[in-house]
Amino acid sequence: MVQLMRRRRAEGTESAQVEETASESKTRLIDAIPIPMGDPLEALLLSNGGPVVLRDLEFESAALDGLRQSGVELVVPLIGQGELLGALYLGPRLSDQPYSTDDRRLLGSLASQVAPAMKVAQLVREQQAEAKERERIQQELQVAALIQQTLLPKELPAITGWQVDAFYRPARAVGGDFYDFIDLEDGRLGVVIGDVTDKGVPAALVMATCRSMLRAAAQRHSAPSAVLAEVNDSLVPEIPPAMFVTCLYAIIDTGAGEIVFANAGHNLPYVRSNGGVIELRATGMPLGLMPGMSYEETSYGMGAGEVMVLTSDGITEAHSPEGEMYGFARLMGRVGKKTSEDDMLNEVVNDLEKFTGPDAEQEDDITLVVVKRTSSAQGAASTFLPLEGGVPLQDGGESEGPQVLARFSVPSEEGNERIAIAKVTAAIGSLALQPDRLERLKTAVGETVMNAIEHGNEFRSELDVEVEVCANDDTVSVLVTDQGGDKLIPEAAVPDIEAKLAGEQTPRGWGLFLIEQMVDEVKSTSNGGAHTVELVMNREGAL
Amino acid sequence: MDGFSGSLRQGLDPNTLVGGWVGVVSETMQPSSVSVWIRNDFGTLEG
């Protein structure tokens, strides 16, 4: 039996030797000598097509000389599609008999069968290699996606007088978008949005490094420009060649309403101000390209009702089916439209989806951060609310009592019940309540918060409505507290138009009636200065 | 020879094909020495 024993690379060729292992044959091994392209022997073998006896040849050839010195008598070429794929070298026969015409015909016939089979085998091997490569890429993308998802915030900041929303949707090939919220001292909030060039695991690792550097630098510097400058200098020696990071870092003074930001080559932010859309400008080189960069700083005072929109280029560089780019002008126009819903995040995303079409494959990661100043009420230090499906907030220790999923407040202004509904929905997203029960709870929350704003705090924007969301294994509770003083909380009353007209029923009583129909239990308490309504929904039948 | 013909039809990997080719030739021709060279941009031999 003959086995291939090893391979050898020499000047662009591979060779294989064979070894007799199961017979008493005295066939010896010789080095496989390559026949370089352009060697006269190659031309001869191709033109002849079959086995060639070396002693008959008379021309200058390095390969021919080498073969003769190795004692090769017969060369059997392996030819496929007009190319010399290889050759079999045979020394003289052990019997000293010459290779007859029939021998050479048989050797030629065997070689002519081997060549196409080799070609097929090669194709199969290439296909297997391609499949393996595709699988490797897929696994790499999964790892990259996991890194990104692990590092992106699982909670949104909840700050009195502000509403912060974020949207992130990775492309199939997972780009390097990221965003972050950094809780700073004195009621300030750091907001980061960035994009690492390249895709896959390298981009994800750079993103993770950059995020850590930003978080560390943000605690050391109070100026966004200093934060970006430090991160840039730290990143330059670490980042792989030809990679860089665009990044915008903003610090929001939630009390004064001032936003200060610096920009390292990222998309500029837009503000839907009370006087129209503004593009806020600040220049700076992307991070990781060159050390010693300085970054321009820009500030803007956000008024109540104004919205700042931060985006990644996955939005502006998305294409329609006709090949048109979404672009900055369209984004700016969209940001400038105020609708009755006033839901900037979803309105931008929906507009983008409408533009790209329902069947479009997303070209790049899409990231959107929306910061709205809902009222000029003094901001408070941020707490963080879980994003839908995120990790619930822990309320200290591992007690077996109810777990606090979220705690936030909204100013007593008309319409803020919608904020409360959204935040409660996000907080209980991972509990998988049945859809109809979830809708009933949302209705009850909206009604209760509206009651608290209108009848409890009497639309006084300096007073907040506090909301706390808790859950245990059996129930979800939403506690809504207003600062209604010592006014009595009316009993829930069955709506009676005649009683209302006679002044015997208050609208607040009607609201309570509706609330009681929506949830499994309603508890009302008062401590003299604050009224709390607790909405309890059983979790039975959770999905 | 039959086994080698079978492997040709089944389209085995290049290693097996070349090994079979060399084996058949060695057994039938009984050369004093044998070697095979394959251009490496054609196929990879892994011993």
Describe the overall structure.
- The complex is a heterodimer of chains A (543) and B (47).
- Chain A has helices at 40-48, 62-69, 101-151, 200-220, 224-235, 313-316, 327-336, 344-356, 416-427, 435-456, 497-501, 507-518; strands spanning 2-10, 13-20, 28-29, 52-53, 74-80, 83-90, 155-158, 162-169, 176-183, 188-196, 245-253, 258-264, 270-273, 276-279, 297-301, 307-311, 366-373, 383-386, 403-411, 464-471, 475-482, 521-526, 531-538.
- With 543 residues, chain A is an alpha+beta fold.
- The two termini of chain A are 65 Å apart.
- Chain B is flat, with a radius of gyration of 11 Å.
- Chain B has helices at 2-10, 14-29, and one strand at residues 33-39.
- Mean pLDDT of chain B is 75; it is low at 43-47.
- The chains are: A alpha+beta (543), B alpha+beta (47).
- Chains A and B meet through strand 1, strand 2, strand 3, strand 5 and strand 6 of A and helix 1, helix 2 and strand 1 of B.
Salient structural properties:
heterodimer; A: 543 residues; alpha+beta; Beta-Lactamase; Phosphatase 2c, domain 1; Heat Shock Protein 90; 3 domains; five-stranded antiparallel β-sheet; 12 helices; 28% strand; B: 47 residues
Spatial order of the strands forming the largest sheet of chain A: 8-17-16-13-14
Number of domains of chain B: 1
Report strand % of chain B: 5-15%
Distance between the termini of chain B: 22 Å
What overall form of chain B do the CA principal axes indicate?
flat
**Coarse morphology of chain A:** elongated
Q: How many DSSP E strands of chain A?
A: 23
Strand content of chain A: 25-35%
Mean pLDDT of chain A: 83
CATH hierarchy: architecture of the largest domain in chain A = 4-Layer Sandwich
Rg on CA atoms of chain A, Å: 37 Å
Catalogue the unreliable spans of chain B. Answer: 43-47
- The CATH class label of the largest domain in chain A is Alpha Beta
Q: In percent, how helical is the residue content of chain B?
A: 40-55%
Chain pair with largest interface: A-B, 64 and 39 residues
